[in-house]
Amino acid sequence: MTTRRYKAALVLTGSLLSFGFAAGALAQDAPPVGSIPAPDAQTETEESRDRTSVFGEILVTAQRREERLQDVPVAITAFSGDMIDKLGFDNVLDVATQTPGFQVGGLGGSNNSITPWLNIRGIQFTDTTFVNESSVGLYVDEVYIPFPGAGVQQLFDVERIEVLKGPQGSLFGRNSSTGLVQFVTRKPTDEFEGHASLTVGQYGKIGGEAAINLPAGEGIRIRLAGQYAHNDGYRKNPETGIDTFGKVDAYGLRGTAAIDLMSNLELTVSGHYARGDNIFPGRDLRGTRVPGNTGVRCADPRDVFNGLCSTRNNFINDSDNPRITYSVLDNPVTYRSYGGYAKLELVLDDVTITSLTGAENWKSFFQQDTGFGAQSFNNVTSDFLNRTHSFSQELRANGKRGDVSWVLGAYYYRDNRYNQGNVFDWYAATTPGVIPSSATQGREGRVKSKSVAVFAHVEAEIIDRVTLLVGGRYTSESRDLVRMRFYNGCRVGGTCPLAIDGSNTADFKNFSGDLTLRWKPSDDVMTYVKYARGFKSGGWNPSAPTLFAAGPADPEIVDEFEFGLKADLIDRRLRTNLALFTYNFDGLQSTLSQIVNGVAINNFVNAGSAKIKGAELEAVITPFDNFELSLGGAYLDTEITRVATGGLGILPGNRLPNAPKWTANGVARYGIELGSLGRLTLQGEFTHKSSVFFTVDNDPYRTMTPYMLYNARLIFDSADDVYSAQLSIENIANKRYATGAFQTAGFDSMYFEPGLPRWVSFKVSAKF
Hints:
It is built from 7 helices and 38 strands. It has a 22-stranded antiparallel barrel. A 5-stranded mixed beta sheet has the order 3-8-9-6-7. Residues 1-49 have low confidence and may be disordered.
């Protein structure tokens, strides 16, 4: 889609929104047309719409209680379990394709990334040392997950997914300075029921998911769920014949028990385990040198991505096929994750007291091959071993009296993170007569964090239909660099002397909060204005060239101003959600791999301050029965306004990384009634992104040009909704695109993190 067409579509949707708002204002003097009618009052037409819809009413817990999404004065995109199934979501990267303002990058490609970098409204933290926290929080059943890769593996038997945009510190225990993603899993009930599914597809894909709910006696409920995913690999090196790049072999298990200790006291205990033994998908490797004059870098970055440049050995990769890679080694990508929580809920009249204790453990290892083999000047692997252990304890009270609702809580958190990294010249070590490069080196880092916080949130109706919401949070946090070691010229554990061996400590204190004014002119229209401040503590860079350069980096502070409008209109045939926002962002933390004084280093810096302005619009339209259209779009203008660190190519006016100016997404569904057989649904999906820089220095070689992806699905549901089948074609055009771009300075090639190629699969499901 061209920018002109995209803008036209946005203007058209904006016109619909304006019309809808006017209709909502008139509705103050008329019977509410967007309210949900009682079941016995629904018309046959409405029942028909509800039967085919997957974008119906969703209850969320963004404010620590169940509410209609349309009543919450927070920018939220939410997906029910049915939507997750019908849209074919397998991981958090899929969620981002249909969420305006939400991007996901990371190492490892699009289907088995264990290091996803979550980005909301242009703010993300890219950390290749894995000892620092993301600017975007990830939660599973309200428990904070310190390593995003661990939470991503739990996307099965999910009741819903919530993506909350903007600072969330006054309601969620851990700081979520720019937003959060929450998975809410299905809980045990008193009914015996369950579901199972089987998926088969191209590249040896086979997978399955199953869950069963078991009433285990009076007051005891148990739910067990599991998932398995496998493929044989979807990328091939045409020179070596290795075709296992991108292989996945993973499974996850979860068990949850709910016990009524007393009539007003419930204990919920949940545990999970996940394991993956995958193969790195290889990279889209491109030469960066002028053919025939390989001592000179190509002047036009587009020539690199389009395969017009060469390595120093005059090898040119001009393939446009996303299934082709010239990575040589089928590097492992493995992980183990286990943890769980215990939740006590005591109900005392109009007050609920909750204790939530969580523990999470994560271990991963992956390698990345950065060479063309004999065709390249440099051939090294970078490998990373990561371990994270965390413990959290939250105690909170929720209450409501009259028109006043409140939340009061305290939170304790600690974690221990370890990272070991090596850069190794494997080609020289395995090829006789080749002189090893000086790239071989090893690094170690261990960071311990401890955080104590208290938070409060109050909501009160101050006049008819006008509500004031006030929240605050005080945080005291310590982050200790327990160990930082650098081995020059050898790998971790080698016999060479240490170049660096040191430690350091840092403490951070902060008060943050939010203030919101909500107005509901009718039951179908809600608008709000909001101010919020977000906070993320400083961090360390154990990959720095000196102990002094390791930090600490200063905290990130985000000031957000937002206007929002949510409306259900035209007899529930049109839903429009709009958010306009501006951020003042200070202390931007960023990592940057560069050559400094002839030495390749990994900088972790406070890049400076940034200004962000944007708009997000989501609309669900049912123009006639059995047809449903969901559209989303976002505009994002990011600019670094002040530079705190000089000499690194970071300049005023630079854009933030992985922050496309324009994005759009959509789903169109048309249902065909088959009488007693059931329903057949034709579904199409698209996602569009404009160009992005992948690094804060806006290196023109580490970019992605605009692209659009299309999916199509044919879905059958039986009349009793017990059986279903889905035929899916994803990335119909077999589009080659990148989710990240990297280059070790001085190398003769650029490598891009690949998106998935065209993929056909078939899924059957049953409920019981």
